[in-house]
Design goal:
8 helices, elongated
Protein backbone atom coordinates (compact mmCIF):
# COMPACT_ATOMS: atom_id res chain seq x y z
CA UNK A 1 0.00 0.00 0.00
CA UNK A 2 2.83 2.35 0.78
CA UNK A 3 4.29 1.90 -2.70
CA UNK A 4 0.93 2.80 -4.24
CA UNK A 5 0.58 5.82 -1.94
CA UNK A 6 4.12 7.01 -2.65
CA UNK A 7 3.58 6.67 -6.41
CA UNK A 8 0.66 9.05 -6.13
CA UNK A 9 2.56 11.50 -3.96
CA UNK A 10 -0.03 11.23 -1.20
CA UNK A 11 0.72 11.54 2.50
CA UNK A 12 -0.46 9.00 5.06
CA UNK A 13 -2.85 11.44 6.71
CA UNK A 14 -4.50 12.18 3.35
CA UNK A 15 -5.16 8.53 2.54
CA UNK A 16 -6.17 7.72 6.12
CA UNK A 17 -8.64 10.60 6.23
CA UNK A 18 -10.16 9.65 2.87
CA UNK A 19 -10.48 6.02 4.02
CA UNK A 20 -11.97 6.95 7.40
CA UNK A 21 -9.16 5.46 9.49
CA UNK A 22 -6.39 6.91 11.62
CA UNK A 23 -2.92 7.65 10.31
CA UNK A 24 -1.56 5.23 12.92
CA UNK A 25 -3.75 2.40 11.56
CA UNK A 26 -2.65 3.09 7.99
CA UNK A 27 0.96 3.03 9.16
CA UNK A 28 0.37 -0.33 10.90
CA UNK A 29 -1.15 -1.74 7.69
CA UNK A 30 1.70 -0.43 5.54
CA UNK A 31 4.36 -1.90 7.81
CA UNK A 32 2.56 -5.23 8.17
CA UNK A 33 2.05 -4.89 11.91
CA UNK A 34 -1.70 -5.25 11.40
CA UNK A 35 -3.93 -6.54 8.62
CA UNK A 36 -6.96 -4.54 7.50
CA UNK A 37 -10.41 -6.07 7.21
CA UNK A 38 -11.70 -6.45 3.67
CA UNK A 39 -13.98 -3.44 4.19
CA UNK A 40 -11.09 -1.31 5.38
CA UNK A 41 -8.87 -2.53 2.56
CA UNK A 42 -11.57 -1.56 0.08
CA UNK A 43 -11.79 1.92 1.62
CA UNK A 44 -8.02 2.36 1.47
CA UNK A 45 -7.89 1.22 -2.15
CA UNK A 46 -10.75 3.61 -2.98
CA UNK A 47 -8.80 6.42 -1.32
CA UNK A 48 -5.81 5.46 -3.47
CA UNK A 49 -8.04 5.15 -6.55
CA UNK A 50 -6.78 1.58 -7.00
CA UNK A 51 -8.20 -1.94 -7.06
CA UNK A 52 -7.00 -5.34 -5.88
CA UNK A 53 -5.23 -5.95 -9.18
CA UNK A 54 -3.19 -2.78 -8.62
CA UNK A 55 -2.37 -3.93 -5.08
CA UNK A 56 -1.32 -7.36 -6.35
CA UNK A 57 0.92 -5.79 -8.98
CA UNK A 58 2.45 -3.41 -6.43
CA UNK A 59 3.30 -6.39 -4.22
CA UNK A 60 4.99 -8.12 -7.15
CA UNK A 61 7.04 -5.01 -7.90
CA UNK A 62 8.06 -4.52 -4.25
CA UNK A 63 8.96 -8.22 -3.98
CA UNK A 64 10.87 -8.09 -7.28
CA UNK A 65 8.65 -10.62 -9.08
CA UNK A 66 7.69 -8.80 -12.29
CA UNK A 67 6.82 -12.09 -13.98
CA UNK A 68 3.81 -12.39 -11.64
CA UNK A 69 2.32 -9.02 -12.60
CA UNK A 70 -1.22 -9.36 -13.92
CA UNK A 71 -2.66 -7.29 -16.66
CA UNK A 72 -6.26 -6.06 -16.35
CA UNK A 73 -8.77 -8.73 -17.39
CA UNK A 74 -6.31 -11.60 -16.89
CA UNK A 75 -8.51 -13.26 -14.26
CA UNK A 76 -11.52 -13.07 -16.60
CA UNK A 77 -9.45 -14.77 -19.33
CA UNK A 78 -8.38 -17.48 -16.86
CA UNK A 79 -12.02 -18.08 -15.91
CA UNK A 80 -13.07 -18.34 -19.56
CA UNK A 81 -10.26 -20.81 -20.27
CA UNK A 82 -11.30 -22.81 -17.22
CA UNK A 83 -14.92 -22.90 -18.39
CA UNK A 84 -13.89 -24.07 -21.85
CA UNK A 85 -11.68 -26.81 -20.37
CA UNK A 86 -14.44 -27.98 -18.01
CA UNK A 87 -17.32 -28.17 -20.53
CA UNK A 88 -18.81 -31.63 -20.59
CA UNK A 89 -16.73 -32.78 -17.63
CA UNK A 90 -18.59 -35.14 -15.32
CA UNK A 91 -16.27 -37.68 -13.73
CA UNK A 92 -13.78 -37.71 -10.85
CA UNK A 93 -10.75 -37.21 -13.09
CA UNK A 94 -12.29 -33.95 -14.27
CA UNK A 95 -12.76 -32.91 -10.64
CA UNK A 96 -9.04 -33.43 -10.07
CA UNK A 97 -8.25 -31.29 -13.13
CA UNK A 98 -10.58 -28.60 -11.82
CA UNK A 99 -8.90 -28.69 -8.41
CA UNK A 100 -5.64 -27.72 -10.12
CA UNK A 101 -7.47 -24.77 -11.62
CA UNK A 102 -8.58 -23.46 -8.21
CA UNK A 103 -5.31 -21.57 -8.15
CA UNK A 104 -5.92 -20.10 -11.58
CA UNK A 105 -9.50 -19.07 -10.84
CA UNK A 106 -8.64 -17.47 -7.51
CA UNK A 107 -5.42 -15.98 -8.87
CA UNK A 108 -3.38 -17.50 -6.08
CA UNK A 109 0.37 -17.79 -6.27
CA UNK A 110 0.84 -19.33 -2.82
CA UNK A 111 0.07 -22.93 -1.89
CA UNK A 112 -3.16 -23.41 0.05
CA UNK A 113 -3.37 -25.70 3.07
CA UNK A 114 -4.52 -29.15 1.84
CA UNK A 115 -7.91 -29.00 3.58
CA UNK A 116 -8.67 -25.56 2.14
CA UNK A 117 -7.61 -26.64 -1.35
CA UNK A 118 -9.80 -29.75 -1.13
CA UNK A 119 -12.78 -27.74 0.17
CA UNK A 120 -12.48 -25.16 -2.60
CA UNK A 121 -12.11 -27.90 -5.22
CA UNK A 122 -15.20 -29.69 -3.93
CA UNK A 123 -17.16 -26.43 -3.91
CA UNK A 124 -16.10 -25.74 -7.48
CA UNK A 125 -17.01 -29.28 -8.54
CA UNK A 126 -20.39 -28.94 -6.81
CA UNK A 127 -21.02 -25.63 -8.55
CA UNK A 128 -20.33 -27.21 -11.94
CA UNK A 129 -22.64 -30.12 -11.14
CA UNK A 130 -25.40 -27.66 -10.19
CA UNK A 131 -24.97 -25.70 -13.42
CA UNK A 132 -25.07 -28.91 -15.47
CA UNK A 133 -28.19 -30.08 -13.58
CA UNK A 134 -29.97 -26.77 -14.17
CA UNK A 135 -28.96 -26.76 -17.82
CA UNK A 136 -30.26 -30.31 -18.31
CA UNK A 137 -33.47 -29.54 -16.40
CA UNK A 138 -34.17 -26.40 -18.39
CA UNK A 139 -33.12 -27.72 -21.81
CA UNK A 140 -35.90 -30.35 -22.15
CA UNK A 141 -38.51 -27.80 -21.06
CA UNK A 142 -37.20 -25.24 -23.55
CA UNK A 143 -37.10 -27.87 -26.30
CA UNK A 144 -40.69 -28.95 -25.54
CA UNK A 145 -41.89 -25.32 -25.64
CA UNK A 146 -40.11 -24.72 -28.94
CA UNK A 147 -41.69 -27.86 -30.40
CA UNK A 148 -45.14 -26.79 -29.16
CA UNK A 149 -44.75 -23.35 -30.74
CA UNK A 150 -43.68 -24.95 -34.03
CA UNK A 151 -46.69 -27.29 -34.10
CA UNK A 152 -49.09 -24.42 -33.32
CA UNK A 153 -47.75 -22.43 -36.27
CA UNK A 154 -48.14 -25.27 -38.76
CA UNK A 155 -51.34 -25.16 -40.81
CA UNK A 156 -53.82 -27.99 -40.15
Amino acid sequence: MRWLRDRQGKRQYQVAEAAGITKAMLSAYETGKQKPSLDTLEKILDALECDLNDLHNALQIVNERPEAIRRPGALRETWQAFQAAGEGATDGADAVARSKNVYSILGLSRQLPPQEEQALSEMLDGFHKLVRYLHNAISPVAAARAAAVETEEEPT
